[in-house]
Amino acid sequence: MEDTEAVDLAADWADISQGLRKDLGHQLFTQWIKPIQLGKMCKETGTLELFLPTEFSANWVQDRYHDRLSLAWKIARGEVRQVKIAVHPGRRKIADFDLGGTRRGHDGFGHRAANDSTMAMESIGDDGFTASVGLDPSQTFAAFVTGSTNVLAKNAAERMSKAEKPQFSPLYLKAATGQGKTHLLHAIGHSYLQTHPRARIFYCSAERFMVEFVQALKSNEMIEFKARLRGFDLLLVDDIQFIIGKASAQEELLYTIDALLAEGKRLVFAADRAPQALDGVEPRLLSRLSMGLVADIQPADIELRRQILESKLTRFAPLEVPADVIEFLARTINRNVRELVGGLNKLIAYAQLTGQEVSLQLAEEQLTDILSANRKRITIDEIQRTVCQFYRIDRAEMSSKRRARAVVRPRQVAMYLAKVLTPRSYPEIGRKFGGRDHSTVIHAVRLIEDLRQRDADMDGDVRSLLRQLES
Asked: Cα separation of 309 and 329, whole Å?
């Protein structure tokens, strides 16, 4: 496949993936759509190949998402007439080994496990003891960037994974999509395995819990299901909000929580809302979920977003990403951390595949969808009002002809922010500042940019104003 065609396909897949993430939700997208790899596009037949790592996942996606994927690709690329979903040809089949009654390649419930992020064997002890988990090796405490918005959850998660008995259980992590709660779940599992190498750990989504429950119910294997589930030392359940309204599954989860807590075992749950906001969940289960510690993860502020981007850059060395690009991404992609890192990955991948240098212009061109979804509609009026409050001057000074330094400098800062935070042109900005010429605005923008480099106080003022306007 030519490089240009690969880039085009990758760009279309990025757009399609973003739409599917919104439609399906994070859990389903991550479990079934994210592992898809692009194959070849046959122009003669109009067939596009999509590969998944295992036969199980390929069959699942074929049965449930083939029509949606086909339609999305036909809309994105007119030459695509059909989509073929298959197992990646380079994927080796994992053999089954008997390990003390638990076979490698099977999940903790005894079912055949798909080799994806939710079903995998993590460690095997010297005596053949196995810990059945589905942990992402990249999501550790060392890779988690801590800031003021997530420090409580990070510290609580670390405490839960220590050798000594935690002061609270269960731990309930509450955060909006893409803010790091799933990362902390995986990190707890990795850290706990280091201190308890013989431990049985199980990570699953609430949705998977319900699927396994229904399967056991239909096959008359409830006794085995309960025994396996309650045999774990650490239970990690993600997206607990998806258990809403499932009375029988809720009851089983309630009994499981009681049984594990009675034996001093550890439980961690994660959701996008607080326990009290889980409508359709029976009161007894709500009581169990909130009886330990509820740790809230707030959206990452701009300082944390900068730190996260800087931490990710080490993976791409020696590729250089200019400081203004990092600042632009951190300031603009503010909805969640996942989109922030995804935007950086997409930008760098495009630059590497096309041989272009990473620049601010390239970021604006290639991340249009992500940037437009994240941009808060900040007006020049709002900027003027905020700047006047910050510098304690009258709003009328933004349009006045006064040239006193105490007035001119705040006015120039407001012009700079108007150019940075709004799509307005120089002439449009000038008209909002008392009908000033566009050359005056250009001078103000360049002056403040230069002062930010040389004057720490000015840079601090601008950063503070940016935080206020973007919050």
From this structure: 8
- Residue 239 region, left (φ>0) first, then alpha (ψ -120 to 50), else beta? left
CATH of domain 98-297: 3.40.50.300
Contact 430, 440 (CB under 8 A): yes
Domain chopping of the chain, boundaries: 1-93, 98-297, 380-470
| Number of other residues whose CB lies within 10 A of the CB of residue 98 | 9
Query: pLDDT value at position 293?
Result: 94
Alpha-helical (H) ranges within 77-205 are 151-161, 181-195
CATH for the stretch 380-470: 1.10.1750.10
Q: Which residues are annotated as a binding site for ATP?
A: 178, 180-182
Q: Percentage of residues in the chain with pLDDT exceeding 70?
A: 87
The annotated binding site is made up of 178, 180-182
Fold observed for domain 1-93: GMP Synthetase; Chain A, domain 3 (3.30.300)
User: At residue 394, does pLDDT exceed 60?
Assistant: yes
What is the rounded distance in angstroms from the CA atom of residue 107 to the CA atom of residue 180? Answer: 25
- How far, rounded to the nearest angstrom, does the alpha carbon of residue 186 sit from its chain's CA centroid? 13
Tens of pLDDT, residue by residue over 168-216, are: 889 999 998 889 999 999 999 999 999 888 888 888 888 778 878 888 8
